[in-house]
């Protein structure tokens, strides 16, 4: 397994720690969650740059890199839903898109092709990571300022945070839906009717 693929696997490994630091209530646990999330998000750029620069692009990377991004971002959104900072329909749109694109990729794999992430998918991932990352940052700042130490099980988010998350989640949801439509149009040729 080459270095970019190891970094992709590392991103999967960050998810349990993100959950642990988000849900285990200790002082500055949101700061710890933010650091884990930031490192995981940066690793997405790092593995892609290394793969392209060193010509280490593999089918494993084309398939697993987007999956690791999806798993990381959906974990972040689910953590925030658990806090009560949520727009449920947006999460449903995102999950539907991810399953649709995963299905397209599986159909392509059966035909011996791999559908790599396109510019719309990359934009979607960036906006999702930025949205969830900013929410973790705001939680970490609130915690550091003493506004919240324990932020789960009954946490009542401030109105401004709920408004921010609602707007940001909807922007991410719209971009996600548009990228799903683009993947569907591009991958439709892989769907065979008998």
TrEMBL record:
The UniProt entry's GO CC annotations, sorted and at most eight, read:
membrane
Localization recorded for this chain is: Membrane
Query: EC class of this enzyme?
Result: transferase
| PROSITE patterns recorded | CDP_ALCOHOL_P_TRANSF
Does the keyword section mention Transcription regulation? no
| Catalytic reactions on record | a CDP-1,2-diacyl-sn-glycerol + sn-glycerol 3-phosphate = a 1,2-diacyl-sn-glycero-3-phospho-(1'-sn-glycero-3'-phosphate) + CMP + H(+)
MF terms in GO: CDP-diacylglycerol-glycerol-3-phosphate 3-phosphatidyltransferase activity
> Keywords, A to Z?
Lipid biosynthesis, Lipid metabolism, Membrane, Phospholipid biosynthesis, Phospholipid metabolism, Transferase, Transmembrane, Transmembrane helix
Gene3D superfamilies to which the protein is assigned, alphabetical: 1.20.120.1760
Q: Give the residue spans that cross the bilayer.
A: 7-24, 30-50, 71-96, 161-185
What the entry lists under PANTHER family is as follows: CDP-DIACYLGLYCEROL--GLYCEROL-3-PHOSPHATE 3-PHOSPHATIDYLTRANSFERASE 1, CHLOROPLASTIC (PTHR14269:SF62), CDP-DIACYLGLYCEROL--GLYCEROL-3-PHOSPHATE 3-PHOSPHATIDYLTRANSFERASE-RELATED (PTHR14269)
Q: What is this protein called?
A: CDP-diacylglycerol--glycerol-3-phosphate 3-phosphatidyltransferase
Q: What organism does the UniProt record list as the source? A: Eubacterium coprostanoligenes
